[in-house]
Structure formats: C-alpha cells, structure tokens
Design a protein that fits this description.
With 426 residues, this protein is of the alpha+beta class. Helices cover 38% and strands 17% of the residues. The chain has 3 domains: 157 residues, BirA Bifunctional Protein, domain 2, CATH 3.30.930; 100 residues, no CATH class; 124 residues, no CATH class. The protein is built from 16 helices and 12 strands. Strand 10 and strand 11 form a beta hairpin. The longest helix has 17 residues.
Length: 426
C-alpha cells in the first residue's frame, strides 16, 4: 500500500475534485465518517460541514487534507475491505474523530481511494501536519500491510515501474476500459521518465501501445493546443476512440507537459554522459552492420533505439531511451556523432555524393537488410535507389525548427530579463 498526503488551503478544491469524479462515474462515495447525516445527503451539505469545522480556526490557513491510499494492481479489494482499511488508517494517524469522506476511484489500473478531511477539530484545536507522513503515516501503512496482508509499498513501487503495454486485443473487444488502460501507462511514464518534447514522450509511450496526438494541422484540436491519447495496434496505427488529455486525473495536457519539458532538460543532463559512452563503445567494439543489430546490442544495456520515420517510411532521426536512468534523448541532443546521419554512416550506409550532407534519409527496409547484402557495392546501390526519395523529405531548416527543437536548454527561470532604462527627468 502507498499512502500519499496532500495538505492544502482549499477544502472546496479537494472536495470538488472527487465529487466531479463521482458525477463522471469514475468514482463513488465509499463512506462518510462523523457526519450528522448519511451518504444520500446533498453534496454541498457535505462540503458546508467540512468548511464550518475548518472555520472554527480562521488562523489555520492550511486546513485541507487530501489523502490517497493506493494498492497493488495485483490486489482486488472489496468495498468493505477498502472501507475498513481507510477507517483503520485514519484512526492510526490521529484523524479518527474528524469528519471525513472516502471515495473509491475506478479510473486507474490499480485499486485506490481518496480521503477528504480537515485538520481542525470539533473543539477548535489544530492537528499538526508537520512530518505527518514520517511520524504517523509510514508506521500506520506498515502495520496495515501486516494486518490485512497487503502488498508492501516497496514491492508495489517495483511493480509500478515495470509497466505493461496496453493489451490491444482487450481494447478491441471491450474487455478493458480504454481510459483506464491508457491512464495506467500515463501515470507511470509521465512521472518517471525525463523527456523534453512531445516526440520524445511518444517514443516512450509507443513502447506501451499508447500515443499522444495533436490532431491534423489546421484542425480545431491542433489550433487550440489540444492533446488526445490513442491506443496503438501492432502496426503502430491508432485504434478505438481517443481520450482527451483533460479527462485524465493528472491532466497531461500539452500546456502542462510543456512546463515539464524545460525542467526535464536540466534534470537529464547528469545522465547524458552514460548514454554517450555506451553508444560510442558499442559502435567501436562491436561494429554492428545494421541498425537492427545496433538496437539489439544496446538493448542489453537497457537502451532502446527508436528510429523516427517519415510517412514514406524513411528514417530522418533517432531517439534513444535509457530505461535505467529513465532519460530520453534525440540523437542531435547527445551530439553530432549520435545523429541519424552519423549512426547510419558508421554502419556503412552513406548518402549519395551529391546529396546534401545535413541529413541522411534511409528507407526502413534497411533496418533488417536482406541476406546477402553486406557493406559492399550492393549496399551502396541499395542506398542510392532509396535516396531518390530524398526530395520528398523535409529540409534541414524545417527539421531544426520543428516542435521538438523549440525548447531551449536554458530554463525560463534562469534567463536574464532585460533591464528597463530609467527616463531622465528634465
């Protein structure tokens, strides 16, 4: 079991979050404790009760406590057992006599519930929230795991990091809720991986049969900066109905993701050297003869190589995913020698002498070169035939100015602001 405590200044915000889930059929009220009325009462009557108790101490600004209890995906808890666990947990952390609401959510890949209460008591006392997690929640969590035979938090976190791809067959036949399946992947990828652009994020999501899309250029979704998530089939094509980003609990909208891009660019820098070293060593020591062979060698070091293809199936870039450090880098972000052009040249797939040297485009068929094709003239002629499609590819200027290169490596907060000149009087 994993317990997360979120203190806040707005009871209404925590209350509305859960009540909106109830209205959307994504949650249900599991229990109400220490209220003078039952579950069938009006929703705003429940909110007024909490606010009146909090108003007994107007000097307490942080008077909202929003707790979530999360259980392993391998555990299927009944309503009665989850209600007992939540009540026992609140007793152990000193909130047993407080009015609180317990909501069971069903919009994620694991059983969990949310608890909304206040730290102001009926006697106008204040329950201290200082180190509540360390001093009371952690001992309570460990004891509840023992008493109820729950999966331990340490083991639960290991399970969460081993994300399973969305089962496309189940989505097709309606055996699993699409939103729940996508949400389970998003909950782990968005919080654990470091990515700096939508294409980098998609490189990871695609491993789990999920894709984030902005819609077609010129569409209403694209014009207003919208984002939606699809399930992908075995061929990488979207299937089923896409889900809007705003409908997921953490609201992974484009606007919110862009805030993370700059932070992640700073956070991933310490892990850059590891990736550069492993790729360089593999190229020099193993001398792979194809991109597929390189992918297999790097996979042993928990590094995924994802070629970026055009609509015509032509490689114009490479993305690297380090599963050990959870960092995602485009080849150009690692350095010139790790770009698609340099990597393909290192395995002897060179462009035509007259072709521009800014970028190399190679058809996806050479990911697995046919038997008999080696690093001889056959490979060169094979590449020459493919490079006739080069004119259909994007120019170097278009590639450099597309969305994934738009994020600066310098965080916004660190940029110097221009000083305003003072006007001289007289």
């Amino acid at each position: 079991m994993v317990a997360i405590i979120n203190p806040g200044r707005s009871l209404r915000r925590a209350f509305q979050y859960n009540e909106n889930k109830v209205e959307a059929s994504a949650a249900a009220i599991l229990s109400m404790q220490n209220f003078p009325f039952g579950v069938e009462s009006d929703r705003y009557l429940r909110l007024k009760m909490l606010e009146k108790v909090a108003a007994l101490r107007p000097d307490v600004k942080v008077n909202s406590v929003h707790i979530s209890l999360n259980f392993s995906p391998n555990e299927q808890l009944s309503d009665e057992k989850m209600e007992r666990i939540s009540r026992d947990y609140m007793e152990r952390i000193g909130f047993g006599d407080q009015p609180y609401l317990v909501y069971r959510h069903n919009d994620a890949g694991h059983d969990h519930c949310h608890i909304v209460t206040t730290n102001v008591t009926m006697n106008a006392d204040r329950i201290s929230l200082h180190h509540l997690g360390i001093l009371k929640s952690e001992p309570a969590r460990k004891e509840l795991e023992r008493v109820y035979g729950l999966v331990k938090a340490e083991d639960h976190k290991k399970d969460l990091l081993s994300i399973k791809p969305v089962d496309v067959r189940k989505v097709i036949y309606g055996k699993i809720d699409t939103k729940r399946a996508i949400g389970n992947v998003l909950a782990e990828v968005l919080g654990n991986f470091k990515y700096t652009s939508l294409p980098e994020l998609n490189a990871v999501l695609n491993l789990y049969n999920v894709h984030a899309g902005r819609g077609k250029e010129g569409s209403r979704l694209f014009q207003f900066g919208g984002l939606q998530y699809h399930v992908l089939n075995a061929d990488g094509d979207p299937i089923g109905t896409p889900i809007k980003a705003s409908l997921f609990p953490d609201r992974p909208t484009l606007k919110n993701l862009e805030k993370l891009f700059v932070k992640h660019d700073v956070a991933r820098q310490p892990f850059k050297k590891r990736l550069q070293t492993i790729i360089s060593f593999t190229l020099k020591s193993q001398c792979p003869k194809s991109l597929q062979e390189l992918k297999g060698l790097l996979n042993k070091d928990n590094i995924k190589v994802i070629p970026r293809l055009s609509k015509e199936g032509v490689i114009y870039g490479i993305t690297y995913i380090d599963l050990k450090t959870k960092c995602v880098f485009n080849g150009s972000a690692l350095g010139k020698q790790f770009s698609a052009k340099a990597i393909l040249e290192s395995i002897h797939l060179k462009p035509d002498a007259g072709a521009p040297k800014a970028i190399i485009s190679v058809h996806k068929s050479i990911l697995n070169p046919p038997q008999g094709i080696s690093n001889s003239a056959n490979t060169a002629s094979h590449s020459d035939a493919i490079l006739q499609n080069y004119n259909n590819e994007k120019s170097i200027m278009e590639l450099l100015t597309q969305y994934e290169f738009a994020i600066s490596s310098v965080p916004y907060e660190w940029r110097k602001k221009k000083r305003k000149r003072k006007k001289k009087i007289g």
